């Protein structure tokens, strides 16, 4: 696979260190707003990440320092006279698209409306210290059904405030609430996201995949059902070659050689 490719005029895909894909929404002149080129480019990007066996982690970010993504391009939406958006209109991980590998949002500026959705759908989130998160649909008379999972990610009254007032949260506030994993100065944003991606990519891939799934199934199940599902989930991990390689490498004081089998 090529190391760097423009999937569309609006989306770039770069492979870093052979195991990490950096996906960039590249429309800084329009605050990286979502148009058809962004939609098509992200669909291709997530598909590439999932299908390339060498890739372990994906990072999603935006160009420039103004906006991660300002949501749907409202000029395009007005021209379309869009009413109820089809559920598969946007490439949403865990909904219209399935990716089994960890993803990190590197939020380089304002993440508004659909931009918040793109940050929300990733597994982890690193934000620049000037970034903001806002669900602004109430300001333009649109809806936010995609925000339902936030009830597991934010306290209820904060969630209520965000959707009713349409006022943004700062990156610092989002971090205090546990929505953002880390906040760093903008020049260090990609470095910090890559550092986290390297830590994940160095771990046993079967364990990482199952652990990621564990988090999501635990959020949707009660305690007993979650425990039963988790034991089943990790059985194939325990029986893998990697489960023997890890302890052996530790005993021999060498880095493990993961095969994903």
Number of helices: 10
Low-confidence stretches: none
Q: What structural category do the secondary elements indicate?
A: alpha/beta
Distance between the termini: 22 Å
Q: Work out the radius of gyration.
A: 19 Å
Range of strand content: 15-25%
- Second-tier CATH architecture of the largest domain: Alpha-Beta Complex
What does the overall shape look like? Answer: globular
CATH topology of the largest domain: 2-enoyl-CoA Hydratase, Chain A, domain 1
| Chain-averaged pLDDT | 94
Going across the biggest sheet, name each strand in turn: 1-2-3-4-6-8-11
Counted up, domains total 2
Biggest sheet features: 7 strands, mixed
Portion of residues within helices: 40-55%
CATH class of the largest domain: Alpha Beta
Beta strand count: 11
- The CATH homologous superfamily name of the largest domain equals 2-enoyl-CoA Hydratase, Chain A, domain 1
The H/E string reads EEEHEEHEEHEEHHEHEHHHH
Write the layout of secondary structure elements.
Elements: E1 4-8, E2 11-16, E3 20-25, H1 36-51, E4 57-62, E5 67-69, H2 74-80, E6 103-107, E7 110-112, H3 114-121, E8 124-128, E9 132-134, H4 137-140, H5 156-165, E10 169-170, H6 171-176, E11 182-184, H7 189-201, H8 205-220, H9 223-238, H10 241-251
Parallel strand pairs: 3-4, 4-6, 5-7, 6-8, 7-9, 8-11
Antiparallel strand pairs: 1-2, 2-3, 9-10
Keywords: Isomerase, Lyase
Family: Belongs to the enoyl-CoA hydratase/isomerase family.
Organism: Parapusillimonas granuli
